[in-house]
Amino acid sequence: MSKLLDAIRERRSDRHFAPNKPLEPEVVQTLLEAFRWAPSSNNRQPWRIVMASSPEAHRIFDDALSAGNKQWAPVAPLKLVIIGVPEEQPERNGTQNYLLDVGFAMENMMVQGYAMGLTIHAMAGWDYDKIVKGFNIPASAKPVALIAAGYRGRVEDLIEEVRAKDLKPRTRKTVGEFTYTDNYGAAFK
Ligand SMILES: Cc1cc2nc3c(=O)[nH]c(=O)nc-3n(C[C@H](O)[C@H](O)[C@H](O)COP(=O)(O)O)c2cc1C
Fold it and tell me: H or E segment at 144?
């Protein structure tokens, strides 16, 4: 179990990918396997994935990226559009549970990828309309994140601006900053 915690803790969203090192089909399959075993409310699994394969699909993906993500993500060999289907998972208590479900599945994939020597980097910086149009996503399905993935490369090979992001120490809130005992806001004991 401690190995699992190590992978959870050490997984990181790096931006350096090994150039010219595609992911083997069995590696991609393992990532998808980790994704599909995520929990979801009522086991509804309200997710879809479009994987860019052709050069044209890669071009569409890259073109939709924000300026910041364009600096590093295009070289990633594996590019995924992660999609949720809201009508397959009704909202409850004001919470869009399909987003929770998709998030769990993404994290499964990200931790599994880390454990296999990959970087799986989720992105919120992209143009919604370009992704919908470029990948023919119907109105009932919502792209929620893009993923760029590949084997880890050398941070030295990044341009300075991006390298600085990857060299920044990773931090987290302490448990006491977000966990309360008995009442919201009360110190965690
Ligand atoms: C939903 C989501 C969207 C993100 N969007 C971007 C993004 O557009 N560009 C980027 O460089 N990093 C993005 N990140 C990576 C986060 O910045 C990163 O997870 C966070 O800084 C914590 O770092 P770590 O993943 O290395 O622990 C995203 C992460 C998540 C989960």
Answer: strand 142-151
**pLDDT digit string, tens, across residues 130-162:** 999 999 999 999 999 999 999 999 999 999 999
pLDDT digits (tens, 9 = 90+) for 23-64: 999 999 999 999 999 999 999 999 999 999 999 999 999 999
**CB 186 less than 6 A from any atom of ligand 1:** no
pTM above 0.90, yes or no: yes
Residue type at 12 in one-letter notation: R
According to DSSP H, which parts of the chain are helical? 2-10, 25-36, 55-64, 67-70, 97-115, 128-134, 160-167, 175-178
Of ligand 1's listed atoms, the one at least distance from the Cα of 14 is 26
Domains of the chain, each with CATH number or no CATH: 2-178 (3.40.109.10)
Mean pLDDT for 159-184 is: 97
Regarding the beta carbon of 58 and ligand 1, being less than 6 Å apart is answered: no
Separation of alpha carbons 63 and 131, rounded Å: 9
Q: Atom 21 in ligand 1: which residue has the minimum CA distance? A: 13
Tokens read off for 56: 């044209």
Other beta carbons within 10 Å of 19: 12
Q: Backbone phi, then psi, for 3, in 5-degree steps?
A: -65, -40
Distance of CA 121 to the CA centre of its chain: 5
**Does any ligand 1 atom lie closer than 6 A to the CB of residue 70?**
no
